[in-house]
């Protein structure tokens, strides 16, 4: 067993000493301090904020449910993605592929039983009835919570001991190790004992992709859509290939994050939801008993 | 050690209480919600004015222009005064400039065209999400303001327009920073032609660091004011009175 630290374990000196004891004695069935206060508060703030950002973002998308590549893009221009309706048929078109989505996208029934011709349905948006103005207030207020939270968490993680929880060590990056971890995941064989308290390599790579690509990407493409920030940071237009490209990427990153959340939730359920959720609420994680059969 | 653990518990408890209070409050109290949701605009406006206040937007080349620049908002003026002016090819149209200025005045199209002019190829971003790039020619608003000489207490420039949504005449307003920004122009030309009716003839505002709805069309009168209260619904613009942000730099 390597002596990699347990995630988030390092607060005050007092806490350190206590957690060190626990780590050393933490075999199976023992509880260990796994997530720091900062990580846990950031996690739950981001959960609530992400839901608000996603659902208000879908409402904003409803105002113009077409995506383009390049600097400009409007109704006369070619949209690579479009959610629309013709007669009573709702559809999602991506390139030349047209999928009928009546009932979910393009055409759906409101809570009051009325047929609506909007892209995303009421249950997926904030607010639940059409209001671009209101959705923008939600989105552009909570964008600050998301961005400031991300910034504090990333800087704190980069400078503090949490970095060691997230960064892979060389040994873990060997193809053999990664392949073994993929096989373990495919067989739903999760680490037991002390190893369960640390992130495995697929977890580390996933979290790094989320923290260093998807979240910064979604925030910076958001910046790129602001005409004022375009003036201050014109380099963003070059980085993402124009405002409409940034808008498309913003949407793609959002669904990348939705995909991450889906997998994250599945893994929580498979790994033991009560123990996992408790560890993110209280910080304390019970090591799963080692399977010796 | 136990003292430190207690302190950590206290911080954690306070943190969770804050999160639960904030999001719970948002869920149950519409007053709290309205208060919080003002935050984004306030933060954006203040930071945008604090850092890079005078930055210029990108100007594009002719090759990068939209082949077809769709219209935004209304596509025609609708007051009798505007219709009469349009019938004469805007020959007898006059822009009124009033309010907190030393020298109020009226300016015909020829007078505006004889002032310094600026041509810029810029991107128009609609609040809905689409963008179009077009070429605008007009008089910098700063040049017109230099003529009328605003009083020191003038804080906003209000644009009163001839287009209507329902019964309400369109209007808009910007602060003095945007008013004096070099790329803020009263455009009388678009894509090397007279400004078309669909795009706001005879003049429209181009305030390039804000969204489409700030770029008032069919402008009849410009008024300098100290406060936006008492004008229209009091929020500084037609869409602002209907819930949109007054500061539309994002």
TrEMBL record, chain A:
Keyword Transferase belongs to the record: no
Which part of the chain is the Cytochrome b561 bacterial/Ni-hydrogenase domain?
34-283
Membrane topology for this entry? Answer: Multi-pass membrane protein
Q: Which Pfam families does this entry report, sorted A to Z?
A: Ni_hydr_CYTB (PF01292)
Keyword Membrane assigned: yes
Domain of life, per the record? Bacteria
Q: From the record, give the transmembrane residue ranges.
A: 41-61, 137-156, 205-229, 249-270
Identify the keywords attached in UniProt to this record, alphabetized. Answer: Membrane, Transmembrane, Transmembrane helix
Primary residence: membrane
Places the protein is found: Membrane
In terms of InterPro entries, this protein maps to: Cyt_b561_bac/Ni-Hgenase, Hydrogenase_cytochrome
Kindly provide the name given to this protein in its UniProt entry: Cytochrome b/b6 domain-containing protein
Tell me the organism's taxonomic lineage: Bacteria, Pseudomonadati, Pseudomonadota, Alphaproteobacteria, Rhodobacterales
UniProtKB/TrEMBL annotation, chain B:
Instruction: Mention any Pfam family matching this sequence.
Output: Oxidored_molyb
Annotated TM spans? none
Oxidoreductase molybdopterin-binding domain span: 91-226
UniProt cross-references to InterPro entries, sorted A to Z:
OxRdtase_Mopterin-bd_dom
**Protein's name in the database:** Molybdopterin-binding protein
Q: Which organism is it from?
A: Maritimibacter dapengensis
């Amino acid at each position: 067993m390597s002596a990699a630290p347990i995630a988030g374990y390092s607060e005050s000196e007092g806490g350190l000493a206590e957690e060190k004891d626990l780590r050393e004695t933490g075999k199976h069935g023992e509880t260990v301090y796994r997530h720091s206060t900062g990580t846990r508060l950031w996690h739950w703030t981001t959960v609530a904020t992400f839901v608000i950002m996603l659902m208000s973002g879908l409402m904003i998308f409803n105002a113009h449910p077409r995506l383009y590549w390049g600097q400009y893009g409007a109704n006369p221009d070619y949209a690579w993605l479009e959610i629309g309706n013709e007669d009573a048929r709702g559809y999602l078109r991506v390139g030349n592929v047209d999928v009928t989505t009546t009932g979910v996208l393009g055409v759906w029934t409101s809570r009051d039983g009325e047929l609506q011709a909007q892209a995303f349905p009421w249950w997926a948006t904030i607010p639940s009835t059409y209001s671009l103005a209101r959705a923008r207030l939600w989105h552009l207020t909570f964008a600050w919570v998301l961005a400031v939270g991300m910034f504090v968490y990333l800087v704190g993680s980069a400078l503090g001991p949490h970095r060691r929880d997230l960064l892979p060590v060389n040994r873990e990056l060997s193809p053999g190790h990664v392949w073994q971890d993929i096989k373990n995941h495919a067989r739903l064989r999760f680490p037991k004992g002390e190893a369960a308290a640390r992130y495995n390599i697929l977890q580390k790579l996933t979290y790094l992709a989320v923290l260093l690509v998807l979240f910064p990407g979604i925030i910076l493409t958001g910046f790129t859509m602001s005409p004022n920030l375009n003036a201050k940071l014109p380099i963003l237009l070059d980085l993402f290939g124009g405002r409409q490209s940034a808008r498309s990427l913003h949407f793609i990153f959002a669904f990348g994050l939705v995909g991450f959340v889906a997998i994250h939730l599945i893994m929580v359920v498979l790994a033991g939801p009560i123990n996992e959720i408790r560890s993110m609420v209280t910080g304390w994680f019970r090591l799963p008993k080692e399977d010796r059969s | 050690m136990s003292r430190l653990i207690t302190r950590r518990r206290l911080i954690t408890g306070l943190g969770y209480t804050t999160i639960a209070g904030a999001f719970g409050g948002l869920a149950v109290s519409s007053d709290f919600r309205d208060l919080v949701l003002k935050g984004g605009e306030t933060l954006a406006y203040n930071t945008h004015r604090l850092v890079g206040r005078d930055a210029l937007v990108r100007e594009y080349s002719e090759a990068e222009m939209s082949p077809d620049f769709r219209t935004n908002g209304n596509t025609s003026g609708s007051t009798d005064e505007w219709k009469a002016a349009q019938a004469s090819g805007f020959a007898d149209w006059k822009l009124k400039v009033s309010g907190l200025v030393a020298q109020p005045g009226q300016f015909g199209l020829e007078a505006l065209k004889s002032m310094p002019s600026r041509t810029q190829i810029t991107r128009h971003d609609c609040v809905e999400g689409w963008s179009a790039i077009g070429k605008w020619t007009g008089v910098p608003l700063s040049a017109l303001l230099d003529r009328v000489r605003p009083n020191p207490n003038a804080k906003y420039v209000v644009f009163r327009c001839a287009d209507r949504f329902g019964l309400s005449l369109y209007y808009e307003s910007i602060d003095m920073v945007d008013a004096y920004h070099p790329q803020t122009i009263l455009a009388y030309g678009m894509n090397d032609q007279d400004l078309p009716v669909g795009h706001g003839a005879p003049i429209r505002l181009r305030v390039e660091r804000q969204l489409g709805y700030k770029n008032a069309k069919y402008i009849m009168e410009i008024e300098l004011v100290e406060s936006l209260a008492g004008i229209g619904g009091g929020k500084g613009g037609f869409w602002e009175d209907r819930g949109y942000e007054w500061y539309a730099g994002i």
